[in-house]
Design brief:
With about 675 residues, the chain is of the alpha+beta class. The protein folds into 4 domains: about 290 residues, no CATH class; about 90 residues, Calcium-transporting ATPase, cytoplasmic transduction domain A; about 140 residues, Rossmann fold, CATH 3.40.50.1000; about 120 residues, 3-Layer(aba) Sandwich (Calcium-transporting ATPase, cytoplasmic domain N), CATH 3.40.1110. The protein has 24 helices and 22 strands. The protein has a 7-stranded mixed β-sheet with strand order 10-22-21-20-11-18-19, with helices on both faces. It has a 6-stranded antiparallel β-sheet with strand order 2-1-3-9-4-7, with no helix packed on it. A 6-stranded antiparallel β-sheet has the order 12-17-16-15-14-13. Helix 12 packs parallel to helix 24, helix 13 runs antiparallel to helix 23 and helix 16 crosses helix 17. The longest helix has about 35 residues. The relative contact order is 0.11.
Length: about 675
């Protein structure tokens, strides 16, 4: 997250996490945090040493004594003042002097150059006074200027550390050790040594050390810091677990599916880190403005000096005005205005299941006029549940219909098969074995069960075979029906439906309140699409759309002047996600690295999509507020520093200028820290 500050101090100040080697071990990310902590401690120490020296410097200064109406001068006082001020200049001012050299070397002058230049001019002039030049020294102004700049940087770096705190919390989620299950014992190993197919034991209350599949046991896992899902999720044998999630009261054995460096959490940390360093159009604008402000500060400082000196003022007065202008014009607040908000928003988003891959896409969320929803798994639950079982044979009950159907569906991964098998599990039905299994392309499946020929088929099969629908048969628009035949005789049917998520209604309502249109785009038939669209009160729908046709629908809306966001699963929707103004991949948390979307939502909850848009707007507002404050402050402060109100008796000292600049920076930092996900 660099802009124009190049010194070590500024690198630390600007949350440079480039030292984080997330790929090797998420704990390495703490190295960047430790570096930042050391820098904060260093500024604190320099501040207190400078404070202790500034008191005697002020008491020995002629101007301060004049203000106090005393005279404590003695022959050696100028030399004691020089010695104390030299310590303050080189020890207290070291970060700024080093920054000046670094920025000159990189040919990229910025804040450190300006401060270093200002204190060097003040010190050199004052030393010349001690050794013979006529005039008033700047030693007390020099000491107070360095003191205030150290305090400002110390406060600012603490604010910056808070802005990236959420990323540190993500890094800390990964446990350092894991209990590896060996043939005869359980052995503790370092998390980063785990490999695919290793088996680990996760005890109650512990963090899961790696992504994997539960091999044995069941428990409730808290995944809130990873997915934003507030409730603990029940997990049993065969289900996936995410590294970093917290185990509940059960003990589970997990087969590792990915090494630590490839885990979901490591991908999230890298994604957050990359996004914090990436630059959007808004930040590039701020960087440009900060560079111009640096040039303005140097030119204005020199012009101010020349004006006052050439119009008859003393050299000391002209120097003081120049130093004040340069200090007050430092582009610090402007340079931090966007990066602080970026750090806060990106890390906060990750905590709430919103993963930002493209900063510009995230900021563009505020422009969205139309949002296109995929139906299955986003607006609906995404899994078919049995809603009706009808037996057409008085000798067969509902359980027998499910028993026979589940026998044929047990080898299928189709959503309909999953729904029937789940119903069999709920009813505690023992599923029989099959013989001569055969899939009837596009129509269903057939096999022998208990010596009988069983078919589970679609309405299309009945139509093809001229088998009439049963008397009184009916299904609503959202249901999918399969028929069960025994020895070619229709004996019953099962209706399944994909339920609308309870959060969908509220999500669509919030979009309407924000004047954003919602459009349904689905491969389902028109009846189902219309039913879902009408139930939710959406603005329209496109049905029976094949994956490659989704792109055309997005383009069609864009040509009408709409700023379109597309939500999809990131696989068959990849072309549409890429062409949309904002691509949002939903329910793709485990494959975030492969997505074409600019934003990934870990959960498929439509409320998260609404949160994303509103949070994008809030983030942009914070950036603009910070930019307005940082530029507005300079517009007012620069003329005052230059002395435009000198004849009215209003003059800012270099120390007062440093206070104003520090306050401006801290205001920007505090404003960024107030950003929240609603």
């Amino acid at each position: 997250m660099e802009h124009q500050h190049t010194s070590e101090t500024q690198t630390s100040t600007k949350m440079d996490h480039s030292k984080m080697d997330h790929g090797a071990n998420p704990h390495m990310g703490m190295e960047g945090h430790n570096h930042h902590t050391i820098m904060i401690a260093d500024f604190k120490k320099r501040f207190y040493v400078t404070l202790a020296l500034t008191v005697p410097i002020m008491l020995l200064s002629e101007m301060i004594q004049h203000f106090m109406g005393v005279n404590w001068q003695f022959p050696a006082s100028p030399y004691i003042l020089f010695a104390l001020s030299t310590i303050v200049f080189f020890y207290g001012g070291w970060p700024f002097l080093k920054g000046l050299v670094d920025e000159v070397k990189s040919k990229n002058p910025g804040m450190m150059f300006l401060i270093g230049f200002a204190i060097t001019v003040a010190y050199a002039y004052s030393v010349a006074i001690v050794f013979g030049l006529k005039g008033m020294d700047f030693f007390w102004e020099l000491a107070t200027l360095i003191l205030i700049m150290l305090l400002g940087h110390w406060i600012e770096m603490k604010s910056v550390a808070g802005a990236s705190k959420e990323l540190e919390l993500l890094v800390k989620l990964m446990p350092a050790d894991a209990h590896m299950v060996m043939p005869n014992m359980v052995h503790d190993v370092k998390t980063d040594t785990l490999k695919e197919n290793d088996i680990i034991l996760v005890k109650p209350g512990e963090k899961v050390a790696a992504d994997g599949i539960i091999l044995e046991g069941e428990s409730y896992l808290n995944e809130s810091m990873l997915t934003g899902e507030s409730k603990p999720v029940q997990k049993a044998k065969g289900e996936k677990v995410i590294a970093g999630s917290i185990n509940g009261n059960g003990s589970i054995k997990v087969t590792v599916s990915r090494a630590a460096k490839d885990s979901y959490l490591s991908q999230v940390i890298k994604l957050v880190d990359d996004a914090q360093k990436s630059k959007s159009n808004t930040q590039l604008l701020a960087d440009k403005a900060a560079k111009w402000l640096t040039i303005i500060a140097i030119v204005s400082g020199i012009a101010t000096f020349l004006f006052w000196y050439l119009t008859g003022q003393t050299l000391a007065f002209a120097m003081e005005r120049m130093v004040t202008v340069i200090v007050i014009c430092c582009p610090h607040a402007l340079g931090l205005a966007v990066p602080l908000v970026v750090a806060k928003s990106t890390a906060l988003s990750a905590k709430n299941g919103l993963l930002i891959k493209n900063r510009t896409a995230f900021e563009n969320a505020r422009k969205i006029t139309t949002i296109v929803f995929d139906k299955t798994g986003t607006l609906t639950v995404g899994k078919f549940e049995v809603s009706k079982i009808v037996s057409l044979n008085k000798d067969l009950n509902d359980n027998e219909i499910i028993r026979l159907a589940s026998a044929l569906e047990q080898k299928s991964e189709h959503p309909i098969a999953t729904g029937i098998l789940q119903k069999a599990k709920n009813l505690s039905i023992t599923i029989p074995t099959t013989e001569n299994f055969n899939a009837i392309t596009g129509k269903g499946v057939e096999a022998n069960v208990d010596g009988k020929k069983i078919l589970v088929v679609s309405p299309g099969y009945l139509k093809e075979k001229s088998i009439p629908l049963p008397e009184g048969f009916s299904s609503n628009d959202t249901e999918t029906v399969v028929f069960v035949l025994i020895n070619d005789q229709l004996t019953g049917y099962i209706a399944l439906s994909d339920q609308i998520r309870p959060e969908s209604v509220e999500a669509i309502k919030t979009l309407k309140e924000n004047n954003i249109k919602s459009i349904l785009l689905t491969g389902d038939n028109s009846k189902v699409a219309k039913s879902v669209s009408d139930t939710l009160g959406m603005d329209g729908f496109f049905a029976e759309v094949l994956p490659h046709q989704k792109l055309e629908k997005i383009k069609e809306m864009q040509t009408k002047g709409e700023f379109v966001a597309m939500t999809g699963d990131g696989v068959n929707d990849a072309p549409a996600l890429a062409i949309a103004d904002v691509g949002i991949a939903v329910g793709s948390g485990s494959d975030i690295a492969a997505e074409t979307a600019g934003i990934v939502l870990v959960n498929s909850n439509p409320k998260d999509i609404v949160s994303l848009i509103l949070f994008g707007k809030a983030t942009y507002r914070k950036m603009i507020q910070n930019l307005v404050w940082a530029t507005g402050y300079n517009v007012v402060a620069l003329p005052l520093a230059a002395g435009v109100l000198y004849n009215q008796g209003i003059v800012l000292s270099p120390a007062a200028g440093a206070v104003l600049m520090t306050v401006s920076t801290v205001v920007v930092a505090i404003n960024a820290s107030m950003l929240k996900v609603k």
